């Protein structure tokens, strides 16, 4: 099974990074995508991925929270780094009007610029959308026919939002949000509606620990070894078995990020 979204460069993992990755292996996680959310952690993600090239890949992007940092300098730096063989998508980028850590205008500008970069380089986009569906789609729509692939990671939206994404053939990332009986109840109902070839699973570690994990770690830190727990819950909701589901969602991750024909395989 494949974890398509881990924030392994987070401070939360500094002390025991090796053990966290080891536990992911032992739990049956066969690969992970490290999410880049700033220029600094995108660079750190490349360093981590380079150390474990058959297991870790990375994205490069400016998260909407940090959209105010967008500049010509970042744009040109990203252009240089994005061709690194460990990088498999542009993002995490998008819009977050829930927190508005950057202004709406800054978020929209950085989002648009990163979409253009992805198109130019024929790369998939790794997207974040929170409380911004309308603007998100109006920025994205003109580019959809030319985008290689689109992932809406950590989907927590409504049925009508999901339908729009699926009409456009987007991949949908599901996290342990569904393990929260209160907050995740609406999302749980939508899980069976996602076509099996569009579903991918993620922990979004260290955030979003599944609320029903037992025993609950005292740190409440999420980690990729909890992916089977989320997979099990998705399997129940879809009335599928975990082996099929793990296989299918891993194949989807490979197709989405073009991992099998990734240039590094040729280099190695
Ligand atoms: Zn996100």
From TrEMBL:
E.C. numbers: 3.1.11.-, 3.1.13.-
Broad class of enzyme this protein falls into: hydrolase
Residues engaged in binding a divalent metal cation 2: 128, 153
Keywords for the protein's UniProt record, in alphabetical order: Cytoplasm, Exonuclease, Hydrolase, Magnesium, Metal-binding, Nuclease
Binding sites annotated in the UniProt record for a divalent metal cation 1: 92, 204
Alphabetical list of InterPro entries matching this protein: DNase_TatD-rel_CS, Metal_Hydrolase, TatD-like, TatD-type_Hydrolase
Molecular function as annotated in GO: exonuclease activity; metal ion binding
Pfam families, per the entry: TatD_DNase
SUPFAM superfamilies cross-referenced by the UniProt entry: Metallo-dependent hydrolases
Protein name (Swiss-Prot/TrEMBL): 3'-5' ssDNA/RNA exonuclease TatD
UniProt cross-references to PANTHER family, sorted A to Z: DEOXYRIBONUCLEASE TATDN1, TATD FAMILY DEOXYRIBONUCLEASE
TM region(s), chain numbering: none
Keyword Hydrolase: yes
CDD domains, sorted: TatD_DNAse
